[in-house]
Design a protein that fits this description.
Layout lengths: L23 H15 L5 E5 L4 E5 L2 E4 L7 H8 L3 E6 L4 E2 L2 E2 H7 L3 E7 L17 E2 L6 E4 L10 H4 L4 E5 L10 H15 L2 E5 L35 H10 L7 E5 L23 H10 L19 E4 L7 E3 L17 E5 L5 H5 L6 H10 L9 H6 L3 H7 L4 H6 L2 H11 L8
Parallel strand pairs: 4-7, 4-10, 7-9, 10-11, 11-12
Antiparallel strand pairs: 1-2, 2-3, 5-6, 8-9, 13-15, 14-15
Helix pairs in contact: 5-6
């Protein structure tokens, strides 16, 4: 589909090049029929492991391939061009980093732009990170999270022809990597630069839920009128932002994942940020991150961030923890105080994957503490995206009553996003 200068690369299984020009849904249908026939009508299923996500067709296992691995689709676009990367520690192809591979192949990489948490992914949430140099390649690293930079300088923008984006997102409106990408896309539009997004699966891509952001709460943790769980990959967000006029029109190419649909369970091979160290934390993040807008700790400063929550004054819980300074949480909320609360770290992964966005944990903690308005901070609206959720919790509404208020907006968003999808749902 073309949207002005918007272009998207083909998604295909290289072993079956006869189908290269087919639309993906048609290809997947025919591929599934062919495989089930060839393998004796065996049932198709998804295989989930810690390090590799695969689609099983009978006895044949087909690995999910991230866009970065499809070098034939983007190497030719970089040849003879000055290249810069928007990347971090998740930009891996197997055991090697994308920057090391491009450098070794002789591409002219002029700089690396780094998002929140820095290029190595070790900085705290929101921590300012300065410029540096990549020790292995000598390529300068320009921080986009130094507290001053809204976009790169004119000099930096004039130093490259193509921006390559490769970062692992987790599919939440308040997870900031997509916001950094949009800022760079706007700058590239202004300077006539090409943007190539090397797509990666969304581990929460099977879910669309939560209020659509009321733009009066737009902030550094919410930039677009999309739900908390939007179900999009980075490539799809980029396409939708350009198509809907949320971002300036730039020359955009997306190199798709292969063997992936939005229903495919995808375990992350690299932790996307310091406080999402496990797959379970990634799944519970939509619900537990709302505690960032309350007086309750969600486990920063422990070995189970986003898998536990508690407060010194919560009653009736058998689990306790004490936040301490840790890597990625130098000064965690409620540091040094014994907190009582809930431990979700033993929840089976299959169950955690279906939690999505629930208000149950927040409502239970709110009622347990009995603090009224003092339970919340202004951050709550920035995270949930609307004003009515806090008001309804204060008024004693149930989760079902609150959820009913955003269903119409969700239905509208589902229709709105459909033209920009790159993968079957």
């Amino acid at each position: 589909m073309r949207l002005g200068k918007l272009r998207t690369s083909s998604c295909f299984l290289s072993a079956f090049t006869i189908f290269v020009r087919m639309k993906r849904p048609v290809f997947l249908l025919l591929f599934g029929i062919w495989m089930s026939s060839a393998l004796g009508q065996k049932e198709q299923s998804i295989v989930v492991s810690d390090k590799l996500q695969t689609l099983r067709c009978g006895d044949l296992i087909v690995p999910v391939r991230v866009g970065t691995t499809d070098t034939a689709m983007y190497y030719p676009r970089l040849a003879g061009k000055r290249v810069t990367l928007l990347a971090n520690h998740t930009s891996m192809i197997g055991e090697r980093h994308l920057i090391d591979i491009l450098h070794a192949r002789g591409f002219d990489v002029t700089a690396i732009f780094a998002p929140e948490h820095g290029f190595r992914g070790t900085a705290d949430a929101g921590e300012h990170v300065g410029n540096s140099v990549d020790e292995r390649t000598g390529i300068p690293i320009r921080s986009l999270y130094d507290g001053n930079t809204k976009r790169p300088s004119d000099e930096a923008m004039q130093s490259f022809d193509v921006l390559v984006v490769d970062m692992q997102d987790v599919g939440l409106r308040f997870y900031t990597y997509y916001i950094t990408m949009l800022r760079m896309m706007d700058a590239c539009a202004e300077f006539g630069r090409t943007v190539v997004v090397l797509d990666r699966p969304n581990p929460n891509g099977h879910l669309i839920d939560g209020p659509v952001l009321d733009m009066k709460y737009k902030s550094g943790v919410g930039a677009l009128p999309i739900p908390v769980l939007h179900g999009l990959t980075m490539g799809e967000i980029a396409r939708m932002a350009v198509g809907e006029g949320w971002s300036r029109k730039c020359r955009l190419d997306v190199v798709c994942c292969r063997n992936y649909t939005h229903a495919t369970p995808y375990g992350l091979p690299v932790a996307p940020s310091p406080n999402l160290p496990t797959q379970r934390a990634v799944y519970l993040y939509p619900s537990l991150c709302l505690f960032e807008g309350t007086v309750v700790s969600l486990g920063r400063g422990t070995d189970k961030p986003f898998e536990i929550y508690g407060h010194p004054d919560m009653k009736g819980y058998g689990f306790s923890f004490t936040p301490r300074p840790t890597a990625g949480a130098k000064h965690p909320p409620l540091e040094g105080r014994l907190c009582h609360g809930a431990d979700l770290s033993r929840m089976p992964l299959d169950e955690a994957r279906q939690v999505g966005l629930t208000l149950r944990y927040v409502i239970e903690a709110y009622r347990n503490l009995g603090l009224g308005e003092r339970f919340f901070t202004p951050m709550f609206e920035k995270l949930i995206g609307v004003g009515y959720v806090r008001e309804m919790i204060l008024a004693g509404a149930s989760e079902a009553e609150i959820r009913a208020c955003w269903q119409e907006d969700l239905s509208r968003f589902r229709r709105q996003r459909r033209p920009y999808l790159l993968y079957a749902e």
